[in-house]
C-alpha cells in the first residue's frame, strides 16, 4: 500500500468536477432541442444518454477516474490500470455529477427545469394538432 497523494486527489476531483460541468453544458443543446423535447422530455432518457456519451468519450481517451483516484489514495500495490469497469463507473459518476451541476445551475437560476418542461409540453401539443403536417 502506497502513500496518499493529496495533490493527485485534488487533481482527480478537479477533473471530475470539470468533466461534470463539461457534460452538463455539452448535453444541454441536445436536451433543449425541439425534437428531443417533444419526444423524450420527462421519459428518463437524459441520464442513460449522458452515461453512453461519457462512456464513449472515456473509452476513446482511455480515461478512468476511479483508477486515478485509487492510485492517488495509495491503493496500488502494483500499478492500477484503466479498465472498462472503471470507465463505466466513471461514466456513471460523471452523469451523476452532471445532474448535480444541473441542480446547482437551477438554484443559481442559470437553468430552469420548469421552463424546459413547459417548452416540451408546447412542442408535444404542436405535434399533436390535427392541422400540423408533421403530426400525421
Question: What fraction strand?
Answer: under 5%
Instruction: Give the helix tally.
Output: 6
Query: What ranges have pLDDT less than 50 throughout 5 or more consecutive residues?
Result: none
Number of strands: 0
Tally the structural domains.
Answer: 1
| Rg from Cα | 19 Å
Name the structural class. mainly alpha
Shape label: elongated
Query: What is the string of helix and strand elements?
Result: HHHHHH
Give a nutshell description of this structure:
The chain has 136 residues and is an all-alpha fold.
Task: Name the features.
about 140 residues, mainly alpha
Task: Explain how this protein is built.
This protein is mainly α and 136 residues long. It has one domain. The chain has helices at residues 6-32, 34-40, 46-60, 65-72, 84-107, 113-128. The protein is elongated.
Annotate the secondary structure layout:
Layout: H1 6-32, H2 34-40, H3 46-60, H4 65-72, H5 84-107, H6 113-128
Helix pairs in contact: 1-4, 1-5, 2-6, 3-5
Amino acid at each position: 500500500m502506497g502513500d496518499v497523494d493529496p495533490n493527485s486527489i485534488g487533481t482527480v476531483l478537479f477533473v471530475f468536477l470539470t468533466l461534470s460541468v463539461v457534460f452538463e453544458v455539452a448535453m444541454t443543446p441536445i436536451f433543449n432541442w425541439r425534437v428531443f423535447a417533444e419526444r423524450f422530455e420527462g421519459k428518463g432518457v437524459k441520464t442513460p444518454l449522458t452515461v453512453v456519451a461519457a462512456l464513449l468519450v472515456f473509452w476513446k481517451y482511455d480515461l478512468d477516474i476511479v483508477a486515478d483516484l485509487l492510485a492517488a489514495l495509495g491503493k496500488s500495490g502494483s500499478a492500477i490500470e484503466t479498465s472498462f469497469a472503471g470507465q463505466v463507473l466513471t461514466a456513471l459518476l460523471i452523469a451523476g455529477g452532471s445532474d448535480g451541476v444541473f441542480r446547482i445551475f437551477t438554484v443559481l437560476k442559470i437553468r430552469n427545469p420548469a421552463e424546459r418542461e413547459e417548452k416540451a409540453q408546447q412542442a408535444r401539443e404542436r405535434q399533436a394538432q390535427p392541422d400540423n403536417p408533421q403530426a400525421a
